[in-house]
């Protein structure tokens, strides 16, 4: 459920007409709903009620300071994957003890930054990384809390580009080697083993792959404890999918996911961490764009928008589907027609949808891409020197620009000219 609904013939973001925001900030722009963000975060938090837990929002999904502050105020921890994300989390007021650091390629500099600034745990993904972290920790005279990310070799049944839990993926260490790697970790004086980490992929629409992975983690917990390791925390990653269309089967709910966690791991008495990104922010954001032209092509009609692949890369990159709806509510029973919905960038891949059935929309009309809050703004670029588009946060009847659109001058000034030119 989200808070982008038609009211009086207009799409609203909470209590603000989307057209009013478009008038004020210009198109295209991202618009997030505080109520939806809050609701989705709480669903996870409540799903784990009764179990000691921390919901570490995977901020790679949307990392604007205002979004982080909104979630931090609800008690969220953060899952970060770079020094930049760590700095953003700290700048938003998240204490180090609520930040977990994931990622296959943490640099020594990033390790130092997090050890000095405070960190809950590093999710380490390889032996070379373990050795590097041990060295950095000893250099600083501290111990680094770690969980080892294990790769359970489970098929997440999602898009190949976002599946991470099969043995052929670059992530984690094979679960079969876990005992050996934990023994190595225990022998490193700069490291303190606190738990196990697993993440099998993103946009999962079934619980079964989670169940398979978590059962393996449960078994491994027993084995490692018998080996003498103090496994007191389990980080279960993110990955629960969202409905991108109204029609397809809805993915499992956070409550069902929470129940699965309790069923598979509850008996171990471990503190549970989860790292949801998409489900927290995905349906809490829309991308609003204006139709520049409607063009008749050979056997098809194009809607050319002022948003493009540089603003929302998911359709081009993953063939992802985003519902596109007119901001002005279509008349009941309005006839639909098929359109190829495209952006102005000079590539055929700059196509948001082919043959999409849409109610009448024409030049100057506003449209909204739904479910664009996660992996939208954060994956945008300035390709074709199209400025990064603004982000807006709505809270009941108020809205605020939380990231400004840069001017052309600002963009150009970021380049520097060598003295020989
Ligand atoms: N934890 C780890 C270690 C991850 O790698 C990810 C996502 C998450 C948590 C959060 O997963 P979520 O709950 O959001 O599914 N750009 C792609 C998605 C990439 C996901 C990468 N890792 C997309 O637009 O679909």
From TrEMBL:
Pathway(s) annotated for this protein in UniProt: Amino-acid biosynthesis; L-lysine biosynthesis via DAP pathway; L-lysine from DL-2,6-diaminopimelate: step 1/1
Q: Which residues carry this modification: N6-(pyridoxal phosphate)lysine?
A: 60
Presence of the UniProt keyword DNA-binding in the record: no
> What's the catalysed reaction?
meso-2,6-diaminopimelate + H(+) = L-lysine + CO2
Describe its assembly. Homodimer.
Query: Orn/DAP/Arg decarboxylase 2 N-terminal domain location, by residue?
Result: 35-281
Instruction: List positions binding pyridoxal 5'-phosphate.
Output: 239, 275-278, 375
**Which Enzyme Commission number(s) are listed?**
4.1.1.20
State the organism of origin: Roseovarius pacificus
Q: What highest taxon heads this organism's lineage?
A: Bacteria
Against InterPro entries, the record matches this protein to: Ala_racemase/Decarboxylase_C, DAP_deCOOHase_LysA, De-COase2_C, De-COase2_CS, De-COase2_N, Orn/DAP/Arg_de-COase, PLP-binding_barrel
Q: What is this protein called?
A: Diaminopimelate decarboxylase
Report whether Membrane shows up as a keyword of the record. no
Q: Where is the Orn/DAP/Arg decarboxylase 2 C-terminal domain?
A: 29-373
Q: Which GO terms describe its molecular function?
A: diaminopimelate decarboxylase activity; pyridoxal phosphate binding
What Pfam families does its record include? Orn_Arg_deC_N, Orn_DAP_Arg_deC
């Amino acid at each position: 459920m989200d808070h982008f609904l038609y009211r009086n013939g207009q799409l609203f973001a909470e209590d603000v007409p989307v057209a009013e925001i478009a008038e004020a900030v210009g198109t295209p722009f991202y618009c997030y709903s505080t109520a939806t963000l809050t609701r989705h975060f709480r669903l996870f938090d409540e799903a784990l009620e009764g179990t000691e837990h921390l919901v570490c929002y995977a901020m790679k999904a949307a990392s604007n300071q205002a979004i982080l502050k909104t979630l931090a105020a609800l008690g969220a921890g953060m899952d970060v994957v770079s020094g930049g994300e760590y700095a953003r989390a700290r700048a938003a007021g998240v204490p180090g003890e609520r930040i977990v650091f994931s990622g296959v390629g943490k640099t020594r500099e990033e390790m130092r930054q997090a050890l000095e600034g405070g960190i809950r745990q590093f999710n380490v993904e390889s032996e070379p990384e373990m050795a590097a972290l041990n060295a950095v920790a000893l250099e600083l005279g501290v111990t680094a809390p770690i969980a080892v990310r294990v790769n359970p070799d489970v098929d997440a049944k999602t898009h190949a580009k976002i599946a991470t839990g099969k043995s052929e993926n670059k992530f984690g260490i094979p679960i079969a080697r876990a005992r050996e790697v934990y023994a190595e970790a225990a022998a490193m004086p700069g490291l303190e083993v606190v738990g196990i980490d697993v993440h099998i992929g993103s946009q999962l629409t079934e619980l079964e792959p989670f169940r398979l992975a978590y059962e393996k983690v449960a078994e491994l917990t027993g084995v490692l404890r018998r080996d003498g390791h103090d496994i007191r925390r389990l980080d279960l990653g993110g990955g629960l999918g969202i409905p991108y269309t109204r029609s397809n089967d809805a993915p499992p709910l956070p409550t069902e996911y929470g129940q699965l966690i309790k069923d598979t791991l509850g008996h171990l008495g471990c503190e549970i961490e989860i790292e949801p990104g998409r489900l927290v922010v995905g349906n809490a954001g829309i991308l609003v764009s204006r139709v520049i032209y409607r063009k008749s092509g050979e056997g098809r009609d194009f809607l050319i928008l002022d948003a493009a692949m540089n603003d929302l890369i998911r359709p081009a990159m993953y063939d992802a589907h985003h519902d596109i709806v007119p901001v002005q509510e279509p008349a009941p029973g309005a006839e639909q027609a098929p359109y190829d919905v495209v952006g102005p960038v000079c590539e055929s891949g700059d196509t948001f949808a082919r043959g999409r059935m849409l109610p009448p929309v024409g030049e100057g009309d506003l449209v909204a891409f739904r479910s664009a809050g996660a992996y939208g703004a954060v994956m945008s670029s300035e390709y074709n020197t199209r400025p990064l588009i603004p982000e807006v946060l709505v809270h009941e009847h108020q809205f605020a620009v939380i990231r400004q659109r840069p001017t052309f001058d600002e963009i150009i000034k970021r380049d520097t000219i060598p003295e020989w030119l």
